[in-house]
Amino acid sequence: MPSSYGLRPADTNSIMLAAELLRQGGLVAFPTETVYGLGAAACNPEAVARIFGVKQRPTFDPLIVHLAEATVVQEFAEVSPTAEKLMQAFWPGPLTVVLPKTKTIPDIVTAGLPNVALRVPAHPVALFLLRAANMPIAAPSANPFGRLSPTKAEHVMKYLGDKIDLVLDGGACERGLESTIVRLKDGQLEILRPGPVTPQQLEQVTGCPVVMPTGDKITAPGMLKSHYAPRTPLRIVDKITAGDVDPHKVALFFKQPTFDISNFAATRLLSAGGDLIVAAANLFSALHELDSMAAQEILAESVPETGLGIAIMNRLRKAAAK
To answer: Which fold has domain 7-211?
Structure first.
């Protein structure tokens, strides 16, 4: 097993070290534009099994495979014309496409399912690492299963720093929400997990109707009803008001409140001006901070469910479901 190298800045030497550790079967946490991923060599079943063990992730929950570029995708999946349109429009970027897998991808990566979830990330460190390693990297979020996703290297260190081989510190993640996951089914695009790429963008590029899946079957990462959860109980309200102020509680506001909030134990603001892109980028970091306050409850103000707001509310509901 590789030695542990702890936290390192994501410079050239550290990325080359990370690539070598992956080739040896190690686990490396690295930044993407969405959240920090916990990577292993996707075609090494033993290395992938370490991801499930370290995260305490159930093996029925599949992983996303990260690629350096779209040109290699046919080695790992069967690509349809609609998938080609999606890749051309959104890769590199925060879109994961679920496609029929080839035999190159081990069953442990896909939880025994016939499809594999693929994406090309848009973060320079992630792309450098993928090219240096010269192989696909299976990488869920770098956190214990079900917990808040990490958007900073310090979140990864708090969760997994003593359990994995290296953490590359590339700063805060720009998007702050996990990728949108889609699959083509019966001429429609199913959003298996909402994210930064919105339904409107998907429909505009493909011309296909965009729908949400029905039923509880797990076909992609992040589909469990309870997920992305803080340890502190979280409750969503339409609007936090002056009557909600409580010294034993903390509060997550969408926009700047207009009343005195000084008697909350702590508060965080997602976006002073109500910008959904800013709110998404700040969501998990704010929840990490509020969760550390040891309060009785986190009150979370809802956001408008349009565009990126769909993904934000998806994460909040999963966080509250526990």
So the answer is: DHBP synthase (3.90.870)
